[in-house]
């Protein structure tokens, strides 16, 4: 096995980096597998992993590397700089629509006071387990802010962005959630996914809608998962995974549907997978899953398991691109000419077989991993799209 190592005038709550901030009063902030708190941790996580007080420390610098510098050249590879700043800049706390929290305040206070459309910004701190993002609030990390434990969402509409994550982000209550622009690195839990969308509580229904967009995953055993369980009530997960880059991740995506009422709808589009065991695995998923525009490089199995479609996808140095045949579509075979895959740079080289491999007019995401337009082409041309998370720019 290889080495893995549009809302107007939002208010922003900023937590400064000058002093340590602790949430000593946060009690039983359980990331519970239900629609309204409580419930049992059915996934094997111990209470200590989910109820450690939600501490926030100064150690949030996070390791370097990954895609932080953005593209370096323009030789058919991409723009001279990322269209979206990576890592994310801190939001300016000076404007009137920015609410700055003093260093004496806690993140718990910020969450308690946050309103619909607000952003809570963590600047250079590390979040341990127990935190839950309020409904319709964005939790934003900058200046090396990190997540070292398991955190989740208190209600629908939450977004988590801009963190270095060695822990896990869990969506397990009824509602819609977004996880974007984060960097997931190796952590202490050996088999824990970086992002988990799940409905696995035996006592409470949950219907989870989750978008995992433009994140990087490096050196983890598991990247993203969708899970359901049990035979009564509602247990459903609707998950979209797009524009993510997975390097040295053994199992980048797993969907596991069990129980009589479990339902998973999975859509994976324009992700790049490099150095993996099984890139995409569908286990017991009754509904046909959709995969499109994905790039698979140097791995054992591309896709395995339950019924799925494949479109505009490319495999290179993959032992078995399709462990079981797709309902429709095939894999193209060709060298993607990645810039520096071993170092985590999964951009396409000028000679890549993935460049302009998707016909003009095809349905593709409007942006790529770096926030650059997709498709991209010369003025007056009818641009075609590239396969994978990165779109070459003219």
What is the 3D shape?
globular
**Count of individual helical segments:** 2
Query: Averaged pLDDT, please?
Result: 81
Helix content: under 10%
Q: Which band does the percent of strand residues land in?
A: 35-45%
Biggest sheet architecture: 17 strands, mixed
Radius of gyration: 20 Å
Global structural class: mainly beta
Q: Note the gap between the termini.
A: 38 Å
Please mark out the parts with pLDDT under 50 across 5 or more consecutive residues, or reply none.
Answer: 1-13, 15-53, 60-76
Task: Give the domain tally.
Answer: 1
How many strand units? 30
Task: Describe this structure as you would to a colleague.
The protein is mainly β. The protein has one domain (12-348). It has helices spanning 47-50, 107-113; strands at residues 12-15, 56-57, 98-101, 119-123, 126-127, 132-133, 138-142, 146-147, 150-153, 159-161, 164-165, 168-171, 175-180, 183-184, 195-199, 206-213, 216-218, 222-228, 235-242, 245-247, 251-257, 262-269, 272-283, 289-292, 295-305, 308-311, 313-322, 331-333, 338-340, 345-348. It is globular and about 50 Å long. 54% of the residues are buried.
């Amino acid at each position: 096995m290889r080495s893995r190592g549009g809302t107007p005038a939002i208010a922003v709550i900023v937590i400064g980096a000058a002093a340590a901030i602790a949430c000593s009063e946060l009690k039983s902030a359980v990331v519970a597998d239900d629609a309204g708190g409580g419930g049992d941790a059915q996934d094997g996580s111990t209470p200590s992993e989910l109820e450690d007080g939600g501490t926030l420390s100064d150690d949030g610098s996070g390791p370097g590397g990954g895609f932080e510098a953005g593209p370096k050249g323009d030789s058919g590879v991409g723009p001279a700089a990322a269209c979206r700043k990576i890592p994310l800049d801190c939001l300016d706390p000076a404007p009137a629509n920015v609410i700055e929290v003093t260093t004496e305040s806690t993140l718990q206070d910020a969450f308690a006071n946050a309103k619909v459309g607000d952003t809570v910004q963590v600047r250079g701190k590390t979040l341990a387990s127990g935190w839950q993002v309020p409904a319709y609030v964005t939790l934003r990390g900058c200046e090396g802010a990190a997540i070292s434990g398991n955190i989740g969402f208190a209600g629908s509409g939450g977004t988590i962005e801009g963190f270095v994550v060695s822990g896990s982000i869990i969506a397990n209550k009824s509602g819609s959630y977004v996880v974007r622009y984060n960097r997931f690195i190796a952590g202490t839990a050996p088999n824990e996914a970086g992002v988990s969308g799940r409905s696995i509580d035996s006592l409470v229904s949950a219907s989870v809608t989750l978008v995992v967009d433009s994140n990087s995953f490096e050196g983890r055993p598991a990247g993203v998962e969708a899970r359901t369980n049990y035979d009564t009530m509602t247990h459903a997960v609707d998950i979209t995974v797009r524009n993510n880059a997975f390097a040295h991740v053994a199992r980048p995506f797993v969907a596991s549907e069990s129980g009589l009422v479990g339902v998973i709808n999975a859509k994976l589009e324009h992700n790049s997978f490099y150095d993996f065991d099984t890139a995409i695995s569908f286990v017991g998923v009754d509904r046909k899953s959709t995969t499109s525009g994905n790039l698979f490089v140097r791995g054992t199995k591309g896709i395995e398991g339950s019924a799925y479609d494949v479109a505009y996808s490319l495999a290179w140095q993959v032992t078995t691109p399709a462990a079981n045949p797709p309902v429709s579509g095939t894999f193209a075979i060709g060298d993607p000419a990645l810039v520096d895959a071993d170092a985590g740079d999964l951009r396409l080289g000028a000679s890549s077989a993935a460049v302009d491999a998707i016909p003009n007019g095809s349905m593709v995401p409007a942006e790529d991993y770096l926030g650059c337009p997709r498709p991209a082409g010369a003025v007056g041309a009818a641009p075609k799209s590239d396969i994978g998370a990165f779109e070459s720019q003219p």
